[in-house]
Amino acid sequence: MTEITFTHPTYLWLLISIPLLAISHFYLLRHAHRRAMKFANFETLKRVTGKKLITKNITVLVSRVFILLFVVLAVSGSVLWYEGESNKNDFVIAIDTSASMSAEDLYPTRLEAAKADAINFLNIMRSDAKIGLVTFSGVTFVNQIMTKKHFEVKNAIEEIDIVSAGGTDLPGAIITSTNLLVNSDRGKTIILLSDGSSTAGSFLEDSINHAIAYAQDNHVLIQTIGTGTENNEPLGYIPKYYNISAVYNENTLKKISAETGGTYYHAPDNQKLMEAFKELSEESDKAILHLDLSFGLMMLATLMLLIEWGLISTKFRKIP
Fold first, then answer.
1. Model's pTM, two decimal places?
2. CA–CA separation, 296 vs 112, rounded Å?
3. Does 318 map to a domain?
């Protein structure tokens, strides 16, 4: 994922001046040639100089176009965003607490296994990393705002419990988690853990797309972990004779991670879940980074301006 954004995009309207520059260049050049034709003896001058005297000065035009382009991009606040590695990242852990997370295909349940491994993940995180906690079912809650006090996040994780109300608010979880990270000047990562299923009907595709776009606009990387199997496991808090089962759906989780630069991990059992968190800790340096291009572009414009002055004073010097 590589893109360029602009802090002051309004200044991009100045790019209209580039075709105007080209038009004025050829118009003035033609006008100058007409005047020169009235007085100059080009055959004599050509024999003296040994070169063609009437040119279109394309090199000078191209140089000026690039100078103007670099200046406009610089004042527009050009920023390059790219995937890379940084030891300065902040995280939000978003955990699904919907009814389907009470399924017992992971021991003792999907949720309890996720809580235990999330706490282990925190134990090996850098102490300077800010971490927040979000839980979601039919609605989304902020259980812990961003903090460097990791023990507070651990305590908040331990207090998480199943919310029996139906629904899996994946879009809300993404947007809420992104809002916690939006003011961070470090790498921003969401670790979203869910079985991907909705116990109250399918979530709208448009809502998911909107949430993904919001994360992309704020340069947030989302790592997703899918917990559970496709065996239609019974819900842990409901007697089995009711024959109500939890569904596992990984397609949406794959989509979320793929479109935000993250990775999807499938955790059908406790061992795979532990391995997923271990891999996440090894990839905790992965982030979407930015590079301010304004200074470099202005330096390029200055360099090309000096080169142009040199050309005008030598190769493209007007004959008196």
1. 0.74
2. 51
3. no
